[in-house]
Amino acid sequence: MANSVSGDSVVDRVVRVIAAFPAGVTVLQLSELAERADLPLTTAHRLVRQLATHGLLETSPGGSVRLGLRLWELVNRNSPTLALRQAAMPFMEDIQHVLNQNVNLAVLDGWEALFVERLSRRGSVANRAQIAGRMAVHVSSAGLALMSHQPKHAQAEYLDQFADPAGKVSRDEVRAVLAEAANQGYAELAGVIDPDTWGIAVPVLDGQKRAVAAIGVVVPLREMRMQALVPALQTAARGIARRLAEGAG
């Protein structure tokens, strides 16, 4: 791909255009899109026009740009998380039916938990996890459950680079939490994101006992029932792992 004067390729610029849409925002004015993508207006206009011809973006006469249905189709049709979501959904629905609270499914991407599915009902507690949203490992029970069952070298690499932007958690504290989660088979966090909620998550383990996903719940502190929640989540995690293995076979 040819490079621009700034040295970035066409692929770089296309990715910046698509990534310029923040979470929860599907429509931007072309001028704002260009600014967010750090591109000249003329370059943004040309790329948007080309992407629109493929259905990846959609434009309107008023100058607004939105993500196209073709992009959604391609991502969902070929997403590596599709099999995971299909395997997990029946178990997530069962847990939600019993608890009537939020149920999350996450995978590890770098040093963050990436949430690929979420079920919630009216009246459930606040839950900051959003589908396609991310949370740092140390502020998410799902992130801790995932990291606690990664290979030792991956954990060491994570801890070596760890720094809490808020300055509230030290590296040694995170190391201890990961060790505890690995030992007990689940991770828990109380009041980290929202003071009145408790997050509990268990890993979905592959044949090498590494976490390929984490299933978790967010419940009110006052309704915390660890003796009931953990076994239910662990049963669900085993069921998800079994269905993934059957699909792979």
Automatic annotation (TrEMBL):
Residues 8-69 form the HTH iclR-type domain. One of its GO terms (molecular function) is DNA binding. The keyword Ribosomal protein does not apply. It comes from the Bacteria. One of its GO terms (biological process) is negative regulation of DNA-templated transcription. Residues 70-246 form the IclR-ED domain. Keywords: DNA-binding, Transcription, Transcription regulation. This is Putative IclR family transcriptional regulator. It comes from Arthrobacter globiformis (strain ATCC 8010 / DSM 20124 / JCM 1332 / NBRC 12137 / NCIMB 8907 / NRRL B-2979 / 168).
